[in-house]
Amino acid sequence: MKRFLLTSFALAALSGCAEPRQVISDLPSPVMHTYAVKRAPALEAPSPAAPVKRELPIGPKTIVVDPGHGGKDPGTQGVSVLAEKEFNLLLAAELSRALTRRGAKVVPTRTTDKFVTLEHRALIARRSRADLFVSIHADWIRKRHSTGATLYIARSPSSKSIRAADCIAAAFRSSGIKCNGIRRRDFRVLVEHPQPAVLIECGYMSNWADARRLNSPAYRTRLVEAITDGVATHFTR
Predict the structure, then answer these.
(1) Domain containing residue 160: CATH number
(2) Rounded CA gap, 155 and 130, in Å?
(3) Residue 37 pLDDT greater than 50, yes or no
(4) What is the three-class DSSP state of 73?
(5) Quick check: is 51 in a domain?
C-alpha cells in the first residue's frame, strides 16, 4: 500500500498536477474601442444648368447708331451724374460692339464728345443706305414720377420702322425693362432721310430711380442686350 501511494504521488508530480495552476489576475482587461461610422454625405442632385440664350444673328445689315447730342449740346441731365450726351455715347459704343458681334455693319454718327448737326446725322443715314437708323437718347420731364423707356417713330412711318420699334419694345418687356410703348413724333433724325428709323429714350434723367439705373453699367448692358435682341428679331422675321 505504501508503495502504491508513493507511485501515485510520483505520477502526479510528473503529470504536472501536483500543484494547482496559478491564475494570473493582474493583467489589464482588454479595452474595447468603439468607432463611430461616418455616413457618406447624401449626394445633392445637380442644379439644372441655366438655359443658354440663343443669340439671333443679324447678318450683313448696315445699322447707323446715333448717340444724341454731344459737344456744345449736352442734352439733359436732371438728377443724373452723367449728362445725357455722355450716357448716349457710352450706350451707343456698347450697342455698336454688340451689333457688330452679331454680324452687322455699324456706322456711328459720332464716337467722341463732338457736336454733330441733325442734318449731318440724317445725311450719314442716307449715304450709308442704312437698313436701320437707331438714335439713342435719355428723357426729361417735369413730372418726376415718370419712368421707363419710350420708343419714337415718325408720324407716317414705314412698315419697317414700325416693325423694328415693335421688336425692340417687346425685347424691353421680356428683359424686365419698363417700356412706355411706341409714340409718333416727326423728329428730324426720323424724317429727313428715307431709311427705317427708331429713336429710343432709354429712361428719365428727371427721375431718381431711372437716373440711378442709367448711371449703372450693369443696367446699360441690359438695355444694350434688349435693343440688340429686338434688332435681330426685326431682321430675322
Answers:
(1) 3.40.630.40
(2) 20
(3) no
(4) strand
(5) no
